[in-house]
């Protein structure tokens, strides 16, 4: 389960939604172990992973069912370090994040070679416009080489097309 920030060390509704979705998936699919993943921001008194673990335990999860992963700073590291805690790199995992973050997280799991299914609870409507922009920028950043190469190809094809069409239409 990926973190989403804390205020005064407390789990906010956005993060609680992720955790509840993860609990539902655990009960539905019988997962033996939950990994709460989130580092400690400068404005956070505790790491997100620890606060998330505590929240899950307050919801009835036993300590032997949940591990907190706290040594990270971004989604790719969340995924990488959480995966290492689970042991077998070939087993499939379920990653829980927010609905707006599912696509980018799925791209990252593929890039990391993970066999993962990414799920998330719905995002409230008023939060959606800003997070869609943030995710779009994140995808551009994460796939920068691809997007630069695609842009160069598009420009090259356009230039060649204009040059070719002007030589064909020249009187001659």
Strands ordered across the widest β-sheet: 1-2
Residue stretches low in confidence (pLDDT < 50, at least 5 long) are none
The count of β-strands is 6
The coarse silhouette is elongated
Number of continuous helical runs: 6
What proportion strand?
5-15%
Helix content: 40-55%
The largest β sheet comes out as: 2 strands, antiparallel
Instruction: Give the overall average pLDDT.
Output: 88
Order of helices and strands: EEHEHEHEHEHH
Rg over CA atoms: 21 Å
Distance from first to last alpha carbon: 68 Å
Structural class: mainly alpha
Pick out its properties.
two-stranded parallel ribbon; 12% strand; 6 strands; two-stranded antiparallel ribbon; 6 helices; 172 residues; mainly alpha
Description:
The protein has 172 residues and is mainly alpha-helical. Helices cover 53% and strands 12% of the residues. It is built from six helices and six strands, in the order E-E-H-E-H-E-H-E-H-E-H-H. It has helices spanning 13-29, 48-58, 75-86, 102-111, 128-142, 144-169; strands spanning 6-7, 10-11, 34-37, 66-69, 93-96, 116-119. The strands form three sheets. A two-stranded antiparallel sheet has the order 1-2. A two-stranded parallel sheet has the order 3-4. A two-stranded parallel sheet has the order 5-6. Strand 3 (34-37), helix 2 and strand 4 (66-69) form a beta-alpha-beta unit. It is elongated. The model has no long low-confidence stretch (mean pLDDT 88).
């Amino acid at each position: 389960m990926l973190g989403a920030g804390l205020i005064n060390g407390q789990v906010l509704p956005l993060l609680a939604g992720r955790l509840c979705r993860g609990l539902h998936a655990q009960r539905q699919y019988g997962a033996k172990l939950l990994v709460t993943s989130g580092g400690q921001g400068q404005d956070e008194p505790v790491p997100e992973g620890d606060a998330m673990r505590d929240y899950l335990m307050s919801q009835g999860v036993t300590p032997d069912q949940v591990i907190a992963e706290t040594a990270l700073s971004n989604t790719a590291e969340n995924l990488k370090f959480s995966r290492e805690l689970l042991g077998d790199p070939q087993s499939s995992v379920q990653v829980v994040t927010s609905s707006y973050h599912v696509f980018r997280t799925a791209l990252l799991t593929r890039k990391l070679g993970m066999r993962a299914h990414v799920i998330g609870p719905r995002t409230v409507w008023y939060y959606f416009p800003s997070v869609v922009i943030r995710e779009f920028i994140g995808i551009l950043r994460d796939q920068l080489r691809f997007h630069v190469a695609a842009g160069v190809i598009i420009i090259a094809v356009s230039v060649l097309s204009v040059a070719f069409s002007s030589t064909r239409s020249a009187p001659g």
